[in-house]
Amino acid sequence: MLGLLVLFAAAAPEIPEAQLEWQNGDEEFFPLAFRGRWAPKLADCTGDGVEVFEISATKMWFYEGDSKLIKISNVNYTSSPSGTPAYTINAYTADRELMDLSTGTIRLTLSGGKLYMTRLKAVPEDKQWQHPNVLCPESKAS
Asked: Is residue 107 in a domain?
């Protein structure tokens, strides 16, 4: 019986469900678990380099532009290639980069304490695992 309990506990999601909520009535927002300041490595967190980006409730900021959330898909629960729980959203955004305006879909996946962010049309799902980001220590979700 104890073995079954251990197996069940190991399969439980690692992020509390409240932090994965993305909708309140008609309003949509980036789930709390996805918000903060992110970078490929902790060493990148100290500056405002091209690799750092931030996610708030309704926007993402990048080095030379930003994205405003238009619509978000539900949170899909899957697992990463290494077997850790993974939570994926597809965010349809209005993007501004330098002087260019466009729309697109950004895939965001949280797994094992890392955020994997890729453009849905540019990077196949199986390749997204090549682009990990860590949450910067001074990051505060808003």
From this structure: yes
Q: Does residue 14 form part of some domain?
A: no
DSSP state of 10: H
Under 8 Å CB-to-CB from 121, ≥6 apart: which residues?
Answer: 104, 105
Q: How many domains, in total, are found in the chain?
A: 1
Only one residue has tokens 């990051």, namely 139
Of 66, 75, 70, 64, nearest to 33 (Cα)?
A: 75
**pLDDT at residue number 12:** 39
CA angle, corner 44, sides to 38 and 47, nearest 5? 95
User: How many Å apart are CA 38 and CA 139, to the nearest integer?
Assistant: 8
Q: How far apart are CA 94 and CA 75, in angstroms?
A: 20
Q: Mind listing the pLDDT tens digit for each residue in 54-72?
A: 999 999 888 777 888 888 8
pLDDT at residue 10, rounded to an integer: 39
Show the domain range for 120: 31-135
Question: Looking at the predicted structure, is the pLDDT value of residue 93 above 90?
Answer: no
pLDDT of residue 34: 93
Does residue 61 lie within any of the structural domains?
Answer: yes
For residue 37, pLDDT over 90 is answered with: yes
* Residue 21 domain flag: no
